[in-house]
Amino acid sequence: MAPKADARAADGEGRVELLLFRLPDGQRFALNVLKIREVIPCPCLTKLPGAHPAVLGVVELRELTFSVIDTARAIGRQSMDDPRRGFVVVTDFYRGVQGFLVRQVERIVVPDWEAIRPPPPLGTRYLSGVVEQDGEIIELIDLEQILWEITPEACAGGCDGDAIASLDVPDDFLALVVDDSHVARMQTARYLDALGIPHQEANDGQEAWEILDDLDREAPEGELPVRFLVCDIEMPRLDGYSLTRRLRERPRWRELFILLHTSINGELSEERGRAVGADAVLTKFSGEGLAEMARRALNCYRPGKAP
């Protein structure tokens, strides 16, 4: 049984802290502050033979060793002539630390999640959303996409999806994967396929809410059309915390197993997730962890009728 949702849950009151920064061509971008450890002037870097062209080198910082990626080059934009004049945004996500070189760091803004819109259909694949700030459209960079293209081993999850044994899945057990990152949806879908779990996909929380509402109307009375929700937290329009709280407010969805699947490391996501009624929170990407969550969802499964 899922924990009871608290209407006063600490989900940031539907708001998100974004760090604004500029790349060498002057374009402004943003990153979620929860993914950032700190910002430092670009230090001396040690080159890595055979590394991806966008990897400037590695740095040691307080017992941490991590790569520094030229953000501009990684997304196909103009690189800095002298990286030492820039700043490194040190991030902590996807179970690892990475540095991203930018030209200039500006300030933190705090818009509502609802103010963040999906990227335009013909926009670059490196965007996870856009938001208007100071009369200007600010683009949110999809770090997962960059990391996948440059160091795919950092996103692999430490487990071969082809080696996962399938589970005994009832015919009416359906999962819904919700994530604004194409990379994350692809990875999650691969593991669910290996586990033998049928699934649908949604690009953000609002689309997921609409899909669930449609499935609910079409399902026979009393039946729960989706049994396992694998949902990102950071998403345009409707974030994972808000979607979870909405679902828990409906008696119909209180037995749905909700896994908040986040790229953000740390305990804060778990505390907030449980406060809004999630069954579990898992940091991306762990194939074994996702398989264990699927087993938990199956153990909670009650054939036939929903409560």
Could you please describe the fold and organization of this structure?
- With 307 residues, this protein is of the alpha/beta class.
- It folds into two domains: 13-153, CheA-289, Domain 4 (OB fold (Dihydrolipoamide Acetyltransferase, E2P), Beta Barrel); 154-299, Response regulator (Rossmann fold, 3-Layer(aba) Sandwich).
- Helices cover 23% and strands 28% of the residues.
- It contains seven helices and 15 strands.
- The protein has helices at 71-74, 143-150, 182-195, 205-218, 240-249, 268-276, 287-299, and strands spanning 18-22, 28-32, 36-41, 55-61, 64-70, 87-93, 96-102, 104-109, 127-133, 136-141, 175-178, 199-202, 228-231, 257-262, 280-283.
- The strands form three sheets. A five-stranded mixed beta sheet has the order 8-1-2-10-9, with no helix packed on it.
- Helix 6 links the parallel strand 14 and strand 15.
- Helix 3 packs across helix 7 (287-299).
- Residues 1-12 have low confidence and may be disordered.
How would you summarize what this structure contains?
The chain is an alpha/beta fold and about 300 residues long.
List the helices and strands and how they pair.
Elements: E1 18-22, E2 28-32, E3 36-41, E4 55-61, E5 64-70, H1 71-74, E6 87-93, E7 96-102, E8 104-109, E9 127-133, E10 136-141, H2 143-150, E11 175-178, H3 182-195, E12 199-202, H4 205-218, E13 228-231, H5 240-249, E14 257-262, H6 268-276, E15 280-283, H7 287-299
Parallel strand pairs: 2-10, 5-7, 11-12, 11-13, 13-14, 14-15
Antiparallel strand pairs: 1-2, 1-8, 3-6, 4-5, 6-7, 9-10
Helix pairs in contact: 3-7, 4-5
